[in-house]
Amino acid sequence: MRMPMSKRERHAHILRVAKQLFVERGYDDVTIADVIKASDIARGTFYLHFDSLESLLTALFEEVVQETWQRIAPILESVEGIEACTVETVHTVFRMFDNTEDSLVEVFFSGGGAEFMRRKEEALYEHLGSLVEEAVAKRHHLLHDGQIPEAERNLKWTVVMLVSLVANMSHYAAHQVRPETREEFEQHLVNFVLAGMMSQMQTLEARNSSWSPEVN
């Protein structure tokens, strides 16, 4: 007999079941019918929550992004300086794609179609990236409330590159780096990213120092 659940509980239940199926079989070997059967729900119930298997995968990815931000936000709020902000971002995003037993890292990097890829980039770069960008800008007061469009644009690009690089290097480390050297690899990544980030910040600061507000 089906257990009574609220709409929110049912939604979370379907996500948990689908995640387990994706981990066990891989995205390409799971169907909507499989999720329906394993969740013990009617087909109509599934479509009340998700319009496709891809939208379900998107929801799982967005959960990971949200959990990542919940972990990093208090840290970025408390650290002082751009270096500490960058280091904590690298470590947290690297952990986001750890290849643990119940991780969806393989699915996120190989499953889904064009729509999932678009939504994944939105969640990773537009949501998480913009929040990191805001934290970085707050540390250095570089943007003057958007009055220097070039500085704002360059900072955005820098953060997008940071998040993209760290996410992909995490995936690389899970498959190509021996467990006993993974910590060393992560530290090397931190050093590499930090050098690039500080170089970019110095460029922005140089432009920022020559800026003065227009006087009417």
From TrEMBL:
One matching Pfam family: TetR_N
Domain HTH tetR-type: 8-68
Chain coiled-coil ranges: none
Positions of the DNA-binding region: 31-50
GO MF annotations in UniProt: DNA binding
Domain of life: Bacteria
Assigned keywords, A-Z: DNA-binding
PANTHER family the UniProt entry points to: ACREF/ENVCD OPERON REPRESSOR-RELATED, ACREF_ENVCD OPERON REPRESSOR-RELATED
Name of protein: TetR/AcrR family transcriptional regulator
Organism this protein belongs to: Alicyclobacillus mengziensis
